[in-house]
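Re: zinc ion structure - here you go.
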Amino acid sequence: MFEVKNRITKKIDDIGDNHIGSSAKTPLRADAFEISDKEKIDRIKESIKDILETLGMDLEDDSLKGTPRRVAKSFVKDIFGGLHPDKKPKLSTFDNNYKYGEMLVEKNITVYSTCEHHLLPIVGRAHVAYISNGSVIGLSKINRIVDYYAKRPQVQERLTMQVVQALQEALRTDDVACLIDAKHLCVNSRGVRDIESSTVTSEFGGKFKELETKREFLDYIKMETDFE
Ligand SMILES: [Zn+2]
């Protein structure tokens, strides 16, 4: 029995260390929002206090006194704020009056996320594209949707898929693509300590699965734009 349990624990450790995500949906419990944000902050504050005390830190020190509350607040309101469905940006669309039927690419969107296996930062860029099927969306909404899904304990593959799925739903078309190139601090700062490496994930929907369309999208991403 003990051996079976050990093997399962080992498997879970391996999944985490290899950054294998299990599903396109964020694994949230059904009761995730039964307690208020305020209560979450109070509880997390106690947990952070416990961690720091266990590490031997003196929480009476002026520099550390406010840390548990500060961290708890940033977990709930900021870095994991995108867990709350109420924070999802309203993705209102407009009629495509210009009849612009080409690809629209929003590139170099900043990604600040958190690896759910190590709770360390993922920092990078997202490039998102769609081909209008009659509706268009405000450009800043694309940045906001990336940020919303990034502000969760994440797996880069899942983030990429969630962005595509949200835009497919809002724009009522399959023709959406997303590519994310990001550094994982858990890889860069611990374990193999590879500072230079980054991870690329992509999700191509509809027409973007076709080689020519995919290539056009990738060419736009590579294109250097000089704004001087
Ligand atoms: Zn990690």
